């Protein structure tokens, strides 16, 4: 299961808070029964374009990951919760919506890890599915 | 743009090669004009279930990331190339298909970073879109 969340909030301070995002990544996996296999990696990005500034965070869980990228100038955050085990995607959405005080958001659940036979033979690159 | 690739190959040795995955993550961003903002993080996972064993790798690029998780026992790999800048998703698919010698794969391109006005107001958790 791969849950992707894209959301906007009105509290841009949260989006600039490295410690908050570190703690979130550190504590969240156990809430949904996932096993962390690393510490969180969190860094602040300040490139040439201010609209790209923000915090990026990542943690490995058993053979998958959770990532968070904030864009503070626009109060935009994207979150990926990617696990090879099932979890409650609606509850996860609600959790991150509340934590980042999101006022608008979109959440999608992507199926990964297909059975071999469900996939196209790749003599050529298969046609790209746009989602 | 968020390209997701799920694929199966017949060369499980590649899927167990930490150095190969480190080099891939280290060298790939510059091929598509992305700026690395960290070194690659790569680790080997050997949990209780052998079908979950594999290599997980990750690199931060400017406000986004590339991740790779292999499951060597099943010769399965999933790859995410997530960038706030455009890149050629078909070329990227071909690149990873060749590198991992994938014989079956599925590739999808997910739109992220919506405009605020395109998103539902989140008084409640919006209905989950299954993809």
Summary?
The structure is a homodimer of 131-residue chains. Chain A is built from two helices and eight strands. The first copy, chain A, has helices spanning 18-31, 89-99, and strands spanning 2-9, 41-45, 54-61, 64-71, 76-82, 102-110, 120-121, 129-130.
Description:
2 copies of one chain form a homodimer. Chain A is α+β, with helices and mostly antiparallel strands and 131 residues long. Chain A has a single domain (2-114), classed as S-adenosylmethionine decarboxylase (4-Layer Sandwich), CATH 3.60.90.10. Helices cover 19% and strands 37% of the residues of chain A. The first copy, chain A, is built from 2 helices and 8 strands. Chain A has helices at residues 18-31, 89-99; strands at 2-9, 41-45, 54-61, 64-71, 76-82, 102-110, 120-121, 129-130. The first copy, chain A, has a 6-stranded antiparallel β-sheet with strand order 2-3-4-5-1-6, with helices on one face. In chain A, a hairpin with a 4-residue loop joins strand 4 (64-71) and strand 5. The longest helix of chain A is centred in the first third of the chain and has 14 residues, at 18-31. Chain A is globular. The two termini of chain A are 16 Å apart. In chain A, 46% of the residues are buried. At the A-B interface, strand 1, strand 2, strand 3, strand 4 and strand 5 of A face strand 1, strand 2, strand 3, strand 4 and strand 5 of B. Strand 6 of chain A pairs parallel with strand 8 (129-130) of chain B, so a sheet runs across the interface.
Largest sheet of chain A: 6 strands, antiparallel
Sequence of secondary-structure elements of chain A: EHEEEEHEEE
- Our count of helices of chain A gives 2
Architecture (CATH level 2) name of chain A: 4-Layer Sandwich
What is the typical, i.e. mean, pLDDT of chain A? 90
CATH topology of chain A: S-adenosylmethionine decarboxylase
Number of strands of chain A: 8
> Spatial order of the strands in the main sheet of chain A?
2-3-4-5-1-6
Strand content of chain A: 35-45%
CATH class of chain A: Alpha Beta
Could you state the oligomeric state of the chains shown? homodimer
Radius of gyration of chain A: 16 Å
Structural class of chain A: alpha+beta
- According to CATH, the homologous superfamily of chain A is S-adenosylmethionine decarboxylase
Distance N to C terminus of chain A: 16 Å
